[in-house]
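Annotators were shown the component list below and the corresponding predicted structure, then asked to write short factual statements about the assembly.
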Amino acid sequence: MSKKLGRSTIEMENAPVIRASATVVGKKEGEGPLKEEFDLINNDTSFSQETWEKAESEMLREAVQTALQKASLNSSDVEFIFAGDLLNQCIGATYGLREFQIPFIGMYGACSTMAESLAMASIFVDNGLASNAVAVTSSHFCSAERQFRFPLEYGGQRPPTAQWTATASGAAIVGTEEVSGMNVYVRSVCMGTIQDLGITDANNMGAAMAPAAAWTIKTFLEDTKTKPSDYDLILTGDLGQVGRDLLLELLLKDNISISEQHDDCGLILYDRESQDVHAGGSGCGCSASVLCSQILRRMRAGELNEVLFMATGALMSPTSVQQGESIPGIAHLIHLSTRKGGN
Amino acid sequence: MSKKLGRSTIEMENAPVIRASATVVGKKEGEGPLKEEFDLINNDTSFSQETWEKAESEMLREAVQTALQKASLNSSDVEFIFAGDLLNQCIGATYGLREFQIPFIGMYGACSTMAESLAMASIFVDNGLASNAVAVTSSHFCSAERQFRFPLEYGGQRPPTAQWTATASGAAIVGTEEVSGMNVYVRSVCMGTIQDLGITDANNMGAAMAPAAAWTIKTFLEDTKTKPSDYDLILTGDLGQVGRDLLLELLLKDNISISEQHDDCGLILYDRESQDVHAGGSGCGCSASVLCSQILRRMRAGELNEVLFMATGALMSPTSVQQGESIPGIAHLIHLSTRKGGN
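Structure shown to annotators:
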């Protein structure tokens, strides 16, 4: 049975295991530094569908299917699936998951969705409500671009602070049963509060989300009485370069330095020199695909033992921004470890 | 500690209590049959805001604030809040909840959100992860109309199968501590799977959602080995007249008759004769406001003892409908009882 710790942290008792994970990505992501890490790379980003939205659903569906195959599970072996995405009314997830007939709990956390879903799946498994639960999310550059910004055909210019929405999906299966070899356990989760420091520039999401990331890491360290050096990696979702710098600065005001442990999925997914992604990658699929490929692989290989995965979300819509609202952010955190218990 | 029962039901062990509930509605809802039941009625539906979207956020904020006041709780007494709504990127909830600084878990279940959020809040309380958790959702006729259909100024005609999106918000606080007088307990929850029988008419949401409702009620009865006559009321969220008829018909094929116990929030909220709402009310706020006002009041008064509250959601978007997709539905169920245990 999980235990509440301090303000916002939930500690797992039975250390749920990441039984398998899978990633499906688009062409650009498949040309980046992680190209050897993904399960499937679609070379025209359409996933053989007629529209970008259907392409996103298909990509998410393939990620779940691949994860099930890697874990040698049927969809009927999974009790609950937690999922969401950036598309209006979360149609990436709802249409992508339709065929599986797994009880579905829809989430919305913008780009924090992978951490949010993984947290809920872990809580369900740890409390005996599921022996297997899936967490999955996605984003697609083309569906996001026309929904949040301009149709691709418009060819709008992007400022240096802008980030590149990843065409990617990542799925993870959390379960009770250990796998052979090194296991990755979910040790605790920390759920964020909404933070809003008044950023109104929708082309600077990293800055809008950094205060939420600072709140969550600070709260988690307090709740667990741990320090940054207890972790090998503190990984944010998609702050990009601008948001990362701001996060480090905000934490330093509270005398917390994470610069040695910190990295950001938005800075890992692409080669910023050659791939023209400006401040870095973004989108639900950015952190999901980096976590579910390289990070979990490196943990299983014993290269990383204690990882804090913290995905951040900007809780705005094009409508709220047009109406002059500032951009609230949120960050949820997952403590992953190759050790089942103790410190 | 909650217990998984059968395919998709989760039984509470400690019978979490609904400590308080609150409803805030618009003018039309305040002129309907439930006008004496609501906590706040806003007479111009703008909630003193400049836009319909901000009005919806303000309405949701007021519902949470009123529920907290009724339970004599501060926001710092609430460990987690589960919320979502119909607006793109759920901005009704995110902007409405920003000021409370309660750890926030964003949900998306379309019009099933009240049941989905209440299920998650109950699971958290039952497993000792929160002593108080809030479930809240909202919908606003004007923000929904322009997002899903046409701007109000267009004056589009509505077919007889169309439903009327309620301007309403309902919030419920689930907790461990009983209140004075009659208590309402959450006894179990049943999470739905996505059902899609191929309906493509976005003006006939009731029909699109009915198969999901049928799946969930059937699964719940099987999982709990109970029958419709064990309940005083089986309440769907917003099927309206067309969806209700279809639900009864679908269940009869499985030899399940709920016609004596069944009612629908979409048929309770308005006077269909005089209020011109066609097939009935809809929107996340429809079932939330009916549950959190009349239904819980009648339970506390001992008029109803065993209630199944099942909210249904249509998991489409205007984009998916325009692209020719059919409309998947989902339904989540909450078993509420004035009895703490036993049958």
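Statements collected:
1. The mean pLDDT of chain A is 96.
2. Chain A has two domains: 3-8+16-175, 185-337.
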